[in-house]
Structures are given as structure tokens and as C-alpha cells.
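Cross-posting from the modeling subforum.

Setting up a comparison between two proteins and wanted a second pair of eyes on the formatting. Protein 1 (sequence, then C-alpha cells):
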Amino acid sequence: MTTAKGDQQHDAGVDPLVRLREPTDPDCDVFLTGTVFLDIIFTGLDSAPVRGTESWARGMGSSPGGVANMATALARLGLRTSLAAAFGDDHYGEYCWDALEQGEGIDLSLSRTVPGWHSPVTVSMAYEGERTMVSHGHEAPPLDGALPAYPPHARAAVASLVPGRAEEWVAQTARGGAKVFADVGWDDTGRWDLNGLTDLEHCEAFLPNAQEAMRYTRTDCPRAAARALTDKVRYAVVTLGAEGAYAVDGATGETAEVPAIEVSALDPTGAGDVFVAGFVTGTLAGWPLADRLAFAGLIAALSVQEFGGSLSAPGWREVAAWWEHVQEHVCQDPEALRGRYAFLERLLPAATRPWPLRRAVPTIGFRAPRS
């Protein structure tokens, strides 16, 4: 199963917003909605599968995917996370629901099980630092008002923007005072029309990768693209792959750039979701821009060392184990790392297990021993 209850990340006792909480605060820190997939991940492939042959993978994981990647990453960082989604009434849907609600402590009170609808499935194959995915699923049938007409009151929300499509819940959430953080996928139309991302006007931050940012802004430099995007949002954050990430605060003109942490990557699935979750956490906690960027990059780097999807999202125990390792072992410029991440010391729990820390058994579940 994804995680035994005794090893849940929120049991680490870290609440990054503890100093900011007031009795009148909303119950929900972050709201999300979207499609939950069952992810089946194969790792340890020496090369891409070849037509007409059988390939054997040295590793395999199964976990809730899709919007569940982001929801899990947020919950493991101590944020009170609410997810509105449709779940199939098959075994996959039941597993995903239990893994998210019981295993991760995510509020699913706004989610529903849809009779007769099977869960969408994605098979991801990781090799040579990249991944290839095959997905199958059908759009969930209308739920006849079962999902909320209005999103819950929350500190923040995360939206995945689609060119040419506006989601009314995004505008409603922003009007309710929540900070909306947005990412975007590849534009299959090839138009790359920034004005087509109409919900950007309601967003606090936009977090595309370098190629997406440059195509949307018609620039040839990701840093120039970030500066151009602040015409639409306050915070423009552009991920630079192996070079790290760059961010601009359009309100103050402040910029920040943090290099990537060198790690041995097992599977990049879900790393982008983890990065966004880290930036959301730092923003809600009121950290300086450079600290937010550094933390987002750190936990994204930690995530690629594990099986992908929601299984790979690190929590505070993983960060604590990594921080202790940095203090005691020679690695890439340890003095620079200690200086850059010293702000974590006031947040981290005591490291209880050595690095690297494995947190989950990557399978749909083992049967209990028969008596």
C-alpha cells in the first residue's frame, strides 16, 4: 500500500503555517480539482521498449496519479488539502480513494464515487532520465450537482490551465480571497497564445517550464520570459531543468535564481507537481522569494530519487534526513548547500532514520496474512 498510517508525513508534526493560523482561518489551506488516475510506473529500463519485443523493468510502482500527485505533495508538507474529484467504483478507484484519504489525510468530502465508471489509468516507463506514458480513460459522466457549485473557502488553490478554456471555479476562488497558483501543459494546438490562458488574470503565480514560458512569450531566454509573464501574474516562476529555477516578483521587481541539486534520478514522474507544492508552501508561509524557490527545487530533486507519481512526493522526514546527510557527508559544494538551506533548521523535525529514506511500498497492496 502507499503508506502505513504510522509513517504518514503529517505525523512528523511540522505545520509550516503554525505561526500564521488564526481561529477565523478557513479549514482548508489548498483546494484542488481534477482527474485522478491510477499510475503504474516501470523503472530501471535500459532503453525505450522496442516494437515486437518484451522488455523487463527492474522496478515497478503503483499509486494515485493525475491531480493526486499535487494533492499528495501538498498534504505531505503539512498543508490542509481538499480535493474534489470523481473516482471510479472499480478496485482501482477504491484503492486511490483509500490511499489519499486514509494514507495521506486529504479531505475528500467534495469528491464522489461514480457508479459504472472505471478509473483512468496511466502506464509510465522511465529510462535514461526521461519517461514515456500511455494513458486510457473516459471522461466522467455528469454528477448532477454532486460536486460543489462553489469551491470551499481556502487560503490557496492550484489550477492546471488549458488554452482556450476558462474554469469558473478559478475566478470564484480568487474572488473569495484565495491565492491561485497555476501550471500549464504542452499546447498541442501549437498556437501558444498567452491571451488564451484567460484564467491567468485570477492567478497569483504562474509556474511553467522554460520551453512553455518562452513559447508563450515569444522570447528566446527563459529569464526574459519570466519577466514578460509578470504582466499577467505577480509571481512568474520558470523551471530550468538541470539548471534550477528562476523567479520574478512583478510587484517589487525582485528576482531569484537557485541552481538545481545534483541527484541520481530514478523517475521524474510528478517532479513538476512537487515543485509547485513547495512553492505554494513557501508562499503561504511568507518566506522570502529565494527560499521558496530553493525549497521547491529541493523537494522536486528529492522526489525524482523515488518511484514516480504521488509515491515520490517527499515529506518533512525526507527533508530532515537529507539535511542531516548534508551536514555530515561531502557532497556537491556542502558549504553552499548549508548556506542556502539554513532556513530549514527552524522547521525540520529530528531525523529519525538515515538517508536515503524510503517511505512506501510501491504496490497496490498486500493481502493480510491468513489466520
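Protein 2 (same layout):
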Amino acid sequence: MQPRSDQRTGLAYGLAAYTMWGLLPLYWRLLDDASPSEILAHRMVWSLPVAVLLLAVLRRWSWWGPLLRQPRRLGLIVLCALVISVNWFLYIWAVNAGQVLEASLGYFINPLVSIAFGVLVLRERLRPLQWTAVGIGALAVIVMTVAYGRVPWIALALAFSFATYGLVKKGIKLDGIEGFSAETALQLLPALGFLVFLGLRGESSFTTGGVGQALLLSACGIATAVPLICFGASAVRLPLTTIGMMQYLAPTFQFVLGLTVFHEAMPPERWAGFALVWLALALLTWDALRTARRARTALAEAAARAGEAAAGAAQATRAPRAAAAAQHDGEQTAPPRPPGLMQ
């Protein structure tokens, strides 16, 4: 079990990570003068120096060699880089197009899509409450589709792209910073080429938007890397159930921003869809907590039984030795027999 101080530190890091992710719409809105594609390119370009700096500080370079000799893992990293690029672009575009609420819905739906991928791709078996939650999530999408007259494609695209990203990363087996570094290394050249193209056409807000705009675009790498670092520090200190519950903080912040800061419309049908998604997530959370509690109880009982069995075995081992020792002591201390008597 982690010490209390370690758990408090992990909780602080986790809150910081998910709060920063939840408040990112405010940052992307500051860059409204730039196109989503330019913001995305700067995010890719400036993330790599941050990643390299982190690797230098932590002295983690040994993973590069083995990775370059494994074409399958390299192919999975290319796929990860493509999928997360799509996810980043859609999110930036949604925020600057006034679709923050639908973007937040995508990250609320994401755990349900990840569970569906587990069943369809990894052949995992779901518990009844998990099936119920997935069914309610599907009903929420239907409600919003009927009410709006269109499929909530932004939310679904964000949810499916991020769930795909998580699924592919399972096969790479790299830690957070290493994986982030490898992905941004692959993103660098295309992104840099696109920025050079914009500059030559005179369409780059980095060169035409003033010093403030250039600094904001340069800080995209920090805005991307810092939450990831905090998340990694949190993940090694907290149980997965706690991390799983904390992941809802980011879309909650986004949802509140969409309502209160960006004043997006929230008609009754959208409330109904969100309410169904929140019900599904509540069921998932309750099922996860109950399963974790049962697992801890079973582990404690097994440890207690193992301790009792070990104590019994030790007692059984000590008993013959004690008897033999007592017999030996008795023979040593018995009075001598008189001469002439038969032994």
C-alpha cells in the first residue's frame, strides 16, 4: 500500500493534470486567429523539444535502440501518431467552432467506447453492469441523433479516435514520456513542412500575428507536455480505480466552460443525452469500486489463510523437533542404573 503522503501527492498531480486538460479550451480560444491546422502543427513541433528535454533530465535514452529494431512496434507508433493527430485536430477545431459541449460529450463517452473495444477487439468479458452502461450510452447517442436530426459526429469521432489511440498503445508497451517522444518525433517533419508552407504563402499567424501570438503558439508544447507529466506522476502513486474516476474531471470542466464561458446552447434534448451518459458513467464507477473492494477483500482473506497455513505448517514442523529434543534431554538426565542389571 502506498504511504498517505505519496497518495496525497498523486492526488495533487492527478487533479493538476485533469484540470489543465479541462481548461485547454480557454487556451485554444486565445489562438483563435490561427487556423486549427496551424495550431495543430505548432503543437506537434513544439512538443518535441519539451519531450527531448524531459528525456535528457531523466536520462532515458536506452529505449531508442531496441525500438528501431522492431518494425512492428514502429508501425504501431506511426498509427498512434496518426490517430492522436486526428484527435488533436478535431478537438481544436471543435473548440474554435463553438462546439465545446459536444467535444466534452466525446470524452464522457470515451470510457464506454473503450469498453466496447475491449469486447470486440480484445475479447474481454463484461460484467452485467458494464453491459448496462454501454447500452445506456448507445441510447444517449440515439436520443441526441433523433433530437438534433444529425449524428453527434464530433463527440463520436473524438471518443473513437482516443479509444483507438489507447488500444494501439497497449501493443507498444512504452512508458508515457517515451511514447510521447516517439510520436512527436514522427509528427515533427510533416508539421514543420506545413508551417514552412504557410510562411511562404504569407498565411502564418506565427510571423504575422505579433509577438504575443508567436509566444502563445510556441507554448503549445508546454501545454501538451505538462499535463502529461503530471498524469504520469499521478498514475504511479494512485490506484487505477482512483485514476478512472478522476478522468471525468476534464470533460466536466469542458462542459462547464461551454455553458458558462462560451454560452453554448443547451436545449432539453441535449440535457437528456448528457443525463443518460452520466447515468452510464455512474454505473461504471460504482461497478469498478465494488469490484475493487471485492478484490481487496478476497486478497486480504487469501493472505490471512496463507498466514494461518504457514503458521500451522511451522507448528507441525516444530512439534516433532520439540519431542525429539525432550526425549534426548530425558536420556541425558536419567539416573545411572546399578551395575549388574540388564539393560
